[in-house]
Amino acid sequence: MDNSSLAAIWLTCKLATLVTVLLLLIGAPIAWWLANTHSRLKGAVGAVVSLPLVLPPTVLGFYLLLVFGPHGFIGKAMDAMELQRLPFTFAGLVVASILYSLPFVVQPIQNAFEAIGKRPLEVAASLRATPWDAFFSVAVPLARPGFATAAILGFAHTVGEFGVVLMMGGNIPGKTQVLSVKIYDYVENGDYAQAHWLAGGMVLFSFIVLLLLYSRRQRSSWSR
């Protein structure tokens, strides 16, 4: 395995770790709101969050390029503030990955919050716990299995992304060239031996992730 492959692996792990942490911080409040709100906007917000599940990643990447590019409203705003544009940067990969992997984190946490029910929160309220205290001391601990599943899915999905990261980040070695793009690069150049090493590692990684998820579900079913 050459240095460029190792660099792609390191960049992918760094990206997936950072994105997973940010997704848990962003996704938990969204999941809590979706699990408890009676607002008419719940369906619309849920649909927006879940959109990457059905939207081709290249479509999402294309529109992110338009929005964050020199002619997009966010790109123009960043130019006005003399900030670096996000396309073809590591920060751009982070933003694109968060948007594309969001439903894989929000949905497991939302399901976990909904499974808790209202009773534990009502008991916490009767003990004069503030909503903030009830969330951190009651809801989050009870929803730990959902958080664990969300973290595994968010990390794995970020590692396996291709279309969004290629559109938003391009293929810059050491900067935006993640593992999936590196495999594509090897195949495009006819270096199938190196592609086999990386692709085989991805298959093994995916199997381990699925094994962890199914093992967790099996242990949960036995404990009931």
Q: What is this structure, in a nutshell?
A:
This protein has helices at residues 3-36, 42-50, 57-68, 73-80, 90-116, 119-126, 131-142, 144-159, 163-169, 179-188, 192-223. It has 224 residues and is mainly α.
> In which range does the helix fraction lie?
over 70%
Report the principal-axis shape.
globular
Total count of helical runs of at least 4 residues: 11
Structural class: mainly alpha
Number of domains: 1
Mean pLDDT: 89
The major beta sheet can be summarized as: none
CATH architecture: Orthogonal Bundle
Number of strands: 0
Q: For this structure, what is the CATH homologous superfamily?
A: MetI-like
How do the helices and strands follow one another from N- to C-terminus?
HHHHHHHHHHH
Return residue spans where pLDDT drops below 50 for at least 5 consecutive residues: none
Rg is 20 Å
CATH classification, class level:
Mainly Alpha
Q: Give the percentage of residues in beta strands.
A: under 5%
Distance between the termini: 46 Å
CATH topology: MetI-like fold
